[in-house]
Specification:
This protein is of the alpha/beta class. The protein is built from 17 helices and 13 strands. Strand 8 (220-221) and strand 9 (227-229) form a beta hairpin.
């Protein structure tokens, strides 16, 4: 039985006594078992989409950490792992500690003691996800802002933003914030499968100065480890999200996250410009059709008028499912810009979108996930980075000069 506050757990692996544990937890009001899988490697999708807050992994080996199984769990979810074993040796505890296992429970165990461990683990993970003050202070490097933009709707901006954020969080364990600046019709929450408790509207309507601790109270956590700031629930609230507040949000986010991925609407508005100002990498998305290319060209001209540094612009070609009229080279020639990445069209994307599970989690072996993985690597490891080290915008340097108008349509 469960209620709204029950902690969602997923049980993987096997060991003596685990069935009894499962039975006891099933009847516990504070716990909701959202899934079980003996072999986590075969339950990728189930684990990823379960929304589990804590993973209980049973292992029959009491002497060594089941590394492959732990890796398989981690591949699917960023939820903390509690190891359950029927006979543990000191070596297991040692390895568990070294490998970031949240806790080790030796069976038999009183149900209440186990529930306490689960609650404690969940609480700790929540503070970690929401940043403890000490972590905030030790954060030294400035986070990098990756903004996904296109002057056309339906070209895959949100698919790219959600997938990239998820991939960066899962692959490198970096702290990632995903912000939906498509303020009227944002789809980030839907594509990530999260129920927004608070949105960017609530965040900007708070009184007083935004700081990292306050921000932590307004993000929605996703099982991948990504923190999400969703778009307002009501389109009419969009206009109340002012550009200076968005600017402040990004500045604060840079202090506490390694990567800030921003999804945008299909036109320039004041909040988009405030974001471009703080963007390290602009991922300009085009599909292979003439209207998209024409509008991307106009966008490049606008960016040039704004004196936007060209080396921050990365062209991403998304094939989507429609039959391409053009090929990559034609597009590159028309835009006078080389594409940094080409995302293949894949049916898995549509399934992922409709299920609300980002592509790297719902279809980790798809061609799209492969490209997104390379992209995450390029932005954070310097690989495939057009030869240049990742651009970091110096404070106050090369900022966008804004034209004296509030709203600029790119097309
Ligand atoms: N690489 C792809 N392969 C297949 N379908 C895709 C791909 N990229 C995007 N799509 C489809 O296109 C639709 C629009 O994508 P979306 O990210 O919402 O576009 P935008 O945010 O630019 O409006 C999605 O519903 C998705 O199913
Ligand atoms: Mg979108």
């Amino acid at each position: 039985m469960s209620d709204n506050t029950a902690i969602k757990i997923f049980i993987t692996g096997a060991c003596a006594g685990l069935a009894e544990v499962r039975q006891a937890l099933q009847n516990h009001p504070d716990i909701e078992i959202v899934g079980t899988a003996v072999e986590p490697g075969k339950a990728d999708q189930k684990l990823a989409s379960s929304g589990a807050q804590v993973i209980l992994h049973g292992t029959a080996r009491g002497d060594r950490l089941p590394v492959a199984e732990v890796d398989a769990v981690r591949h699917a979810t960023a939820a903390p792992i509690i190891l359950v074993t029927s006979g543990g040796a000191a070596s297991l505890l040692h390895e568990a500690l070294a490998n970031g296992i949240a806790d080790v429970v030796m069976l038999p165990q009183l149900t209440d003691a186990l529930v306490f461990t689960i609650k404690k683990t969940c609480q700790l993970a929540a503070t970690r996800g929401g940043l403890t003050p000490s972590q905030l202070r030790t954060s030294t490097a400035e986070g990098r802002v990756l903004t996904v933009f296109s002057p056309k709707g339906g070209v895959g901006k949100t698919v790219l933003a959600t997938s990239l954020a998820t991939q960066i969080a899962r692959k490198s364990g970096r702290r990632v914030l995903l912000i939906d600046l498509d303020l009227q019709f944002g789809d980030v929450a839907i594509m990530m499968g999260v129920e927004p408790e608070k949105t960017i509207y609530d965040l900007v309507m708070t009184t007083g100065e935004l700081d990292p601790e306050k921000l932590a109270g307004y993000v929605t956590s996703h099982p991948s480890g990504v923190d999400v700031v969703p778009a307002p629930v009501r389109p009419e609230d969009a206009e109340l999200v002012a550009e200076d507040r968005v600017g402040r949000l990004l500045d604060v986010a840079k202090e506490t996250y390694d990567a800030i991925v921003v999804d945008t609407p299909a036109f320039f508005q004041a909040t988009t410009l405030a974001t471009l100002d703080r963007t390290d990498r602009l991922l300009l998305v085009s599909t292979l059709d003439i209207p998209a290319v024409k509008n991307v060209k106009l966008t490049l001209q606008t960016l040039s008028l704004l004196h936007y540094p060209k080396d921050r612009i990365n062209l991403i070609i998304n094939h989507g499912m429609s039959k391409a009229e053009l090929d990559r080279r034609e597009v590159e020639k028309a835009l006078d810009l080389k594409a940094m990445f080409e995302i293949p069209g894949d049916r898995d994307v549509g399934t992922a979108v409709n299920r609300g599970v980002p592509v790297p989690m719902s279809a980790p072996r798809s061609g799209v996930s492969k490209v997104i993985g390379d992209m995450a690597g390029a932005f954070f490891e310097g690989k495939g980075d057009h030869g240049a080290a990742p651009v970091k915008a110096g404070r106050g340097s090369a900022h966008v000069r804004r034209p004296g108008m509030k709203l600029r349509k790119a097309a």
